[in-house]
Design goal:
CATH class of the largest domain in chain A: Alpha Beta
Number of domains of chain B: 2
Largest sheet of chain A: 6 strands, mixed
Distance between the termini of chain A: 28 Å
Strand content of chain B: under 5%
Strand order of the largest sheet of chain A: 7-8-9-3-10-11
Shape of chain A: globular
CATH topology of the largest domain in chain A: Rossmann fold
Largest sheet of chain B: none
Low-confidence stretches of chain A: none
CATH architecture of the largest domain in chain A: 3-Layer(aba) Sandwich
Helix content of chain A: 10-25%
Mean pLDDT of chain A: 90
Largest interface: A-B, 27 and 18 residues
Mean pLDDT of chain B: 83
CATH class of the largest domain in chain B: Mainly Alpha
Low-confidence stretches of chain B: 1-6, 279-286, 554-558
CATH superfamily of the largest domain in chain A: P-loop containing nucleotide triphosphate hydrolases
Number of strands of chain B: 0
CATH topology of the largest domain in chain B: MetI-like fold
Radius of gyration of chain A: 24 Å
CATH architecture of the largest domain in chain B: Orthogonal Bundle
Shape of chain B: globular
Number of strands of chain A: 21
Distance between the termini of chain B: 32 Å
Oligomer: heterodimer
Radius of gyration of chain B: 25 Å
Strand content of chain A: 35-45%
Structural class of chain A: alpha+beta
Chain lengths: 359, 558
C-alpha cells in the first residue's frame, strides 16, 4: 500500500449518538481496487462507520478522505453532503424504489448526473447484463424476488461508475444457498471492475471468503486488521479468536520455554502443550486452538499428543464435528467426513505448536 | 441531513403557528372557566373555582352523561365484539365485503343516524312505530327520544371504533397460539376460554374504555334526540349554557374543561392497558387467523352480521330517502304524497344552498392547505433529527383529547375578544377545522411516512440526488397515496363537522351539519332528510374514492 494514495482514508473517527459512543477513535486506509470488510457483531459500529463514509451520518470528530479529498473533517467543520461524495452504496434492504421500473431504478444515478439518453441506455444495458437482469429492464420493480432485487441494487450502484462502492450487509436477507452464489458473483464483479469496495458484514465466513483484508471491530474499536489468513490463523485477541472461525479456548499458564523456540503451556488437568511464542513476547492465560487443526489418530504421536475419548459425534455433511473428552475438559474437533470415529472410542489428539495461539 | 440550511426557518414557523392555533383557544377556555365575575368581560375581574363548584350543584347532567355513556359503551362493545368475531374468526361468505361495509356507519355520522332513527322510531309518527300500531298495538314500540334511544344511536354510529379495535386485536393474534392448544389436546371450547379470550381481553378492555371516552364527548345524538325532551348531557348542557341570556361562558368552559380532563384520563388508561396487554397479540406478521368452520350456524352468523349493516346503514338511508321525497312526513304511510320539492327547496332556499357551497369550499381549502402543512410536520417529526420533535407531535395531537364542541367554544371566546374581525366568517371556521383535524391528518400521514423505508431516501442521496431532487423523484411519489387519503379524510371530516361549527357559524357563514340541525329543530323533517341525504352522498363519494386509493396501496383498507 506504500506509495499509492489510498482511495478511502479514515483517521481518528468518532461517532456519537448523544452520550453513547458508536465509533471510538478508529483509523484505516483502503488502497485502490481493494475489497475490505468491516466485520463484527451487531452494534459494533461497523455500519455507522460505513454510513459516515457515505455521508449519511455526521461523525463527532476525525477526518474522512476519499480520493485525496477531505469529505469530513471535525476540526475544519467540513462535511460534504452524501450526493457530492461520488460514492455508491448497496443497502441491506436493497432500497429498490417500488414506484419505478428496473430500468428507471438503474438509470437514476445517471439521470441525476444529466447524462445523455443514449449513454444512459447503453450504461444501463451493460450493467443489467453484468448482473444477468437484462430481460427484466421494463418490469415494475415491485414484484422482484429477493435475489433479483439484490442484483438490481448492485446494478444501480455501479451504473454511474462511482469510484468507491459501499456494501451494507448486502447478502443478509438471502437464503444460504443464494448467499453463497452471490458472494462469488460480487467478488467477480468487484475484481473485473477493479472498484474500491468497503463491505460490512457480521458473517465471518462471508468476510473471510470475499475480502482482500478484514477489519474486525468490537464495541466501536478496531480489534485487528489483516488478510483473511492472518485473521484466522493469527488472531490478536480473544475476541477475534472467538468471533472468527471456530476455536477451542484452553485456560492455563506458560510455565517456561519449550523445544525449538516454543513455549511450554500447562492447561487444566495438567496437560502440557508446546505453543508458539507470540512475536511481541506477550504471554496470556489462554490458548486458542482452531477446531480444524486438530488431528485425531488411533495411535499416540509425539508433538502435543494427548489421549482423549470421543464423547459425541455430529455429522455436518461437509465435516464431522467431534466433542472429545480430554484432561482439560472438552475439545471441539472438526474432521473431514472421511474420518470416522465411533462415540466412546479412544483417540490421540495432536496439533502443531504454531496452531496454538497464546492470548 | 444537510438540507436544513434553506429550510431551517420552516420548522420553527410551523411550530409557532400550530402552537398558537392549539394553545390560544385553550388559554381562553381556562381563563374563562376561572372567571367568576361578569362573564362578558375579558380579562376577568375576579378569579375563582366557582364555575367548577357549580358543576356539582346540579348533578343531574353528570348522571345523565354517565348513564348514556355507559349504556352506549356496553351496546357498542357488544355489537363490536360480535361483529369482530364473526368477521375475523368464522368462515362466513363475503367476509371481506362486510368488513368494508362496517366502515360506513362511521361515515354516516351520528347526526344523520339520529335524524334517521328519529324518522324510524319517533313517537307516533316513526315509520316503525306506525307499523307497530297498525299491527294492533295501542302504544309505540319504542320512543327514540329517550336516553335509551340516544345510547342506541351513539352505539351504532360512533361505536364502530370498538369493532375496529377489537377486530385488530383478534386479527393480530398468532394462530399458532390457538393451534398449539388444540394440538396439546384442548377442545374448541376450552381453547376459546383458556387461550383466545385471555389473549383478546386486553384489546377488548382497552376498546371499552376508549369508546367510553368517546361517548362522554359525544354531541350530535344527544342534541337531536335529547333537546326536544329537555334531557341534557354534558355536551348539550355546554351548548345550552352559551345560548342562555346572558350566555354563561364561564360555566360552559368549566364543563368543557372537566369533560376534556375526564376524556384525557380515560384515553390514557385505555392506551396504558393496550400497551401492557399487548404481550398477547404482538408479532407484526400479516397473517389472518384461521377462520373457524361453523357449519349450518354460519347462516345465522351471516344474518347477524348483515343485520348490523341493515340497522346502521340501509334502514336509516331508506327512511331518509322516503322522507325526503314526501310532501308531509307526518302523514300515515298509505296516504303518502311524493314530491321533489324538498330537494328544490334545499338547493334554492336563501341560506341552504350557500351552506352546501360553504361546506364544500371549506372541505377543499382546509384539506388542500392541511395536507402539505401536516406533511412537512410529519416529515420533520418522524424523519428529521430536529430538536423539539416530540413537543411538536404532542402539541399537534392535543386537539384530539378535546371534544370539538369544547374547542369550538374556546375559539368562539378567543376570537370574540380579539379585534381581528373574523368571527362569524368562514375564516374562523377554516381555522377551527384546520386545528381540530391536525391529529387526524398527522396520524394518517405518519402511517405512510413510517412505512417508507428510510434507505429508499438515503439511496437517492448516495446516487447523487440533491434534497429537492430526492423529494420530487422518491419521497413524494411514495407518499402520494397516503397524502391523497389524508386529503380525503380531512375533506370528509370537514364536510360533516358539527361540534365546532355550531358555535362558530354566523348568519353569513352557514355550513351543512348545523344547517341540517336547525332545519330539524324548526320541525321540517322532510327538508332535513333531503339535506342529510345530500351530505351523505357527498361523503360517500369521497369514501368511495378513498377505498379505491387505499386498495391500490397494497390491499390495505383505511
Amino acid at each position: 500500500m506504500s506509495g499509492v494514495q489510498p482511495r478511502i482514508e479514515v483517521k481518528d473517527l468518532v461517532v456519537r449518538y448523544g452520550d453513547a459512543v458508536a465509533v471510538d477513535h478508529i483509523d484505516f486506509a483502503i488502497a485502490p481496487g481493494e475489497l475490505v470488510t468491516l466485520l463484527g457483531p451487531s452494534g459494533c459500529g461497523k455500519t455507522t462507520t460505513l454510513r459516515s463514509i457515505a455521508g449519511l451520518e455526521t461523525p463527532y470528530s476525525g477526518t474522512i478522505t476519499l480520493n485525496g479529498q477531505t469529505v469530513f473533517s471535525g476540526s475544519e467543520r467540513r462535511n460534504i453532503p452524501a450526493e457530492k461524495r461520488g460514492v455508491s452504496m448497496v443497502f441491506q434492504s436493497y432500497a429498490i424504489w417500488p414506484h419505478m421500473t428496473v430500468f428507471e431504478n438503474v438509470a437514476y444515478g445517471l439521470r441525476v448526473r444529466k447524462a445523455p439518453k443514449a449513454e444512459i441506455d447503453t450504461a444501463v444495458a451493460r450493467v443489467l447484463n453484468m448482473v444477468q437482469m437484462q430481460s427484466y429492464a421494463d418490469r415494475p420493480s415491485s414484484n422482484l424476488s429477493g435475489g433479483q432485487q439484490q442484483r438490481v441494487a448492485v446494478a444501480r450502484a455501479i451504473a454511474f461508475a462511482p469510484n468507491v462502492l459501499l456494501f451494507d450487509e448486502p447478502l443478509s436477507n438471502l437464503d444460504a444457498k443464494l448467499r453463497a452464489e452471490m458472494r462469488v458473483e460480487l467478488r467477480e464483479l468487484q475484481r473485473s471492475l477493479d472498484i474500491t469496495s468497503l463491505y460490512v458484514t457480521h458473517d465471518q465466513e462471508e468476510a473471510l471468503a470475499i475480502s482482500d483484508r478484514v477489519i474486525v471491530m468490537s464495541k466501536g474499536k478496531i480489534e485487528q486488521i489483516g488478510s483473511p489468513e492472518e485473521i484466522y490463523n493469527r488472531p490478536r485477541s480473544l475476541f477475534v479468536a472467538d468471533f472468527v472461525g471456530a476455536a477451542n479456548m484452553i485456560q492455563g499458564q506458560v510455565i517456561g520455554p519449550g523445544p525449538n523456540g516454543t513455549l511450554l503451556f500447562e492447561g487444566q488437568g495438567g496437560i502440557r502443550l508446546e505453543v508458539e511464542a507470540p512475536p511481541d513476547g506477550r504471554g496470556g492465560t489462554t490458548v486458542a486452538l482452531r477446531t480444524s487443526y486438530i488431528h485425531l489418530t488411533p495411535m499416540p504421536e509425539t508433538h502435543n499428543a494427548v489421549a482423549g475419548t470421543i464423547h459425541r459425534r455430529m455429522f455436518h455433511g461437509d465435516f464431522i464435528q467431534y466433542v472429545v473428552d480430554w484432561p482439560a475438559g472438552q475439545l471441539i474437533v472438526r474432521r473431514p467426513p472421511t474420518e470416522h470415529y465411533a462415540e466412546g472410542s479412544a483417540v490421540t489428539l495432536s496439533f502443531l505448536p504454531e496452531h496454538c495461539v497464546l492470548l | 441531513m444537510r438540507h436544513t440550511g434553506s429550510s431551517a426557518w420552516i420548522a420553527p414557523l410551523l411550530l409557532l403557528v400550530c402552537g398558537v392555533l392549539v394553545l390560544y383557544p385553550l388559554v381562553y377556555l381556562v381563563t374563562e372557566s376561572l372567571n367568576i365575575g361578569d362573564a362578558q368581560t375579558f380579562p376577568p375581574e375576579e378569579y375563582g373555582f366557582g364555575n367548577y363548584a357549580e358543576l356539582f350543584e346540579e348533578p343531574k347532567v353528570i348522571l345523565n352523561t354517565l348513564f348514556v355513556a355507559c349504556l352506549a359503551t356496553v351496546m357498542a362493545v357488544l355489537f363490536g365484539f360480535i361483529q369482530a368475531w364473526i368477521l375475523t374468526r368464522t368462515a362466513i361468505p363475503g367476509r371481506e365485503r362486510l368488513e368494508r361495509l362496517m366502515q360506513l356507519p362511521y361515515y354516516m355520522t351520528p347526526l344523520i343516524g339520529a335524524l334517521s332513527w328519529g324518522v324510524l322510531l319517533g313517537p307516533k309518527t316513526g315509520l316503525i312505530n306506525q307499523a307497530w300500531r297498525s299491527l294492533g298495538f295501542s302504544s309505540d314500540a319504542f320512543n327514540v327520544y329517550s336516553p335509551w334511544g340516544i345510547a342506541w344511536v351513539m352505539a351504532l354510529f360512533e361505536g364502530t371504533v370498538a369493532f375496529v379495535m377489537i377486530s385488530a386485536s383478534m386479527k393480530s393474534m398468532d394462530p399458532s397460539l390457538e393451534e398449539s392448544s388444540r394440538v396439546l389436546g384442548a377442545g374448541k371450547m376450552r381453547t376459546a376460554l383458556k387461550v383466545t379470550l385471555p389473549l383478546v381481553a386486553p384489546g377488548v378492555l382497552s376498546a371499552t374504555i376508549f369508546v367510553f371516552a368517546e361517548m362522554l364527548g359525544s354531541f350530535a345524538a344527544a342534541f337531536v334526540l335529547g333537546i326536544p325532551g329537555r334531557f341534557f348531557v354534558v355536551t348539550t348542557a355546554i351548548w345550552e349554557a352559551t345560548l342562555s341570556f346572558p350566555p354563561d361562558y364561564g360555566h360552559a368552559a368549566a364543563m368543557g374543561l372537566s369533560l376534556s380532563g375526564a376524556m384525557v384520563i380515560t384515553l390514557g388508561i385505555s392506551k396504558f392497558i393496550m400497551r401492557k396487554g399487548s404481550y398477547a397479540t404482538i408479532s407484526g406478521k400479516g397473517f389472518r387467523p384461521r377462520a373457524m368452520e361453523v357449519g349450518a350456524l354460519r347462516w345465522l352468523l351471516l344474518a347477524i352480521a348483515w343485520g348490523y349493516i341493515i340497522v346502521a346503514v340501509i334502514l336509516p338511508l331508506m327512511a331518509l330517502t322516503l322522507t325526503s321525497f314526501e310532501r308531509f312526513a307526518t302523514v300515515i304511510v298509505h296516504q303518502m304524497q311524493f314530491t321533489f320539492a324538498n330537494y328544490e327547496t334545499a338547493l334554492a332556499m336563501g341560506s341552504l344552498a350557500p351552506a352546501f357551497a360553504n361546506s364544500l369550499l371549506l372541505g377543499i381549502v382546509v384539506s388542500s392547505i392541511g395536507v402539505p402543512t401536516i406533511g412537512v410536520l410529519a416529515w420533520i417529526i418522524y424523519r428529521s433529527r430536529m430538536p423539539g420533535r416530540g413537543a411538536m407531535e404532542f402539541l399537534i395531537m392535543v386537539p384530539q383529547a378535546v371534544p370539538r364542541l369544547v374547542f369550538g367554544l374556546g375559539l368562539l371566546w378567543a376570537w370574540i375578544n380579539i379585534p381581528i374581525p373574523i368571527y362569524g366568517t368562514l375564516w374562523l371556521l377554516g381555522i377551527a377545522y384546520f386545528t381540530v383535524f391536525m391529529p387526524l391528518g398527522l396520524r394518517t400521514i405518519a402511517g405512510v411516512v413510517l412505512q417508507v423505508d428510510k434507505s429508499l431516501e438515503e439511496c437517492a442521496r448516495v446516487c447523487g440526488a440533491s434534497w429537492t431532487y430526492q423529494m420530487r423523484t422518491v419521497t413524494l411519489p411514495l407518499l402520494r397515496p397516503g397524502l391523497i387519503a389524508a386529503w380525503l379524510l380531512i375533506f370528509i371530516a370537514s364536510v360533516r363537522e358539527l361540534g365546532a361549527s355550531v358555535f362558530l357559524m354566523g348568519p353569513n357563514s352557514k355550513v351543512i351539519a348545523p344547517a341540517i340541525v336547525n332545519s330539524w329543530l324548526s320541525s321540517s323533517s322532510e327538508l332535513s332528510a333531503a339535506m342529510a341525504l345530500m351530505q351523505t352522498v357527498m361523503v360517500f363519494i369521497a369514501v368511495a374514492i378513498l377505498f379505491r386509493v387505499a386498495r391500490r396501496v397494497g390491499g390495505t383498507t383505511v
